[in-house]
Fold this sequence. Notes:
It is a single chain. The chain is of the alpha+beta class. It has a single domain (7-184), classed as Methylpurine-DNA glycosylase (MPG) (3-methyladenine DNA Glycosylase, Chain A, Roll). 12% of the residues lie in helices and 27% in strands. The protein has three helices and eight strands, in the order H-E-E-E-E-E-H-H-E-E-E. The protein has helices at residues 15-21, 109-116, 128-135; strands at residues 26-30, 35-46, 73-78, 82-88, 97-107, 153-156, 166-169, 183-186. Strands 1, 2, 3, 4, 5, 6, 7 and 8 form an eight-stranded antiparallel β-sheet that branches. The longest helix is centred in the middle third of the chain and has 8 residues, at 109-116. It binds a DNA duplex through residues 44, 46, 52-54, 57, 60-62, 76-82, 84, 86, 99, 101, 127-130, 171-175.
Amino acid sequence: MKINxxxxxxFNKSTLDVAKNLLGAYLVRSTSKEKIIGKxxxxxxxxxxDAASHSYKGLxxxxxxMFDNPGRAYVYLVYGMYECFNCTTNKKxxxxxxxxxxxEPVFGIEKMKRNRRCDDIKNLCSGPGKxxxxxxxxxxxxxCDLTSAKSRLRIEIPSKKEKFSIVKxxxxxxxxGVSLLYRFYIKDNQFVSKK
DNA sequence: TTAATGATGGGCT
DNA sequence: GCCCATCATTAAA
Length: 195
């Protein structure tokens, strides 16, 4: 797998474009001991003027990573038990991000199974709280630079481009902005959280 | 098969 | 005190 040297240009675009362009990219967790990789198959966009977005009411202690440079991690705790992983987008100060909702397990699958205490490969990363558990992503990864090859958590673009259709749909688990089609997933991929 | 529910804690009013 | 960008378990059908 080759790193695209234009990775830094992946995130400084409109958030809806980034949400689509992240499909097919690889999320890589690497430490000295282990490497875990998943292919991004489902995303959701959260915009600054979007009532469902954490940034809607402006900067706060929790959401300040959303206002940082594009290409950073924004990780938060939801429902008291699960971490959600986002990539920051657009420009510094705007306050937008893309939630990663599902991965297709690619590498380190045995480690994912232990982390999740689950044997069913289709259940390992098919949800935002599941994939962070599978990869060991926590709020300690907040602000992590996803564009650096040295980071413990990063995004990589495969050198050969994969062909797939993108489905546009309503977001899941929100009570505001429910009609917006800000969720994207790879058509017919069996690892998305929900059709 | 789908639907309802409990777990659990931080953010915000 | 209420509201969550969720998930596993249990119950119902």
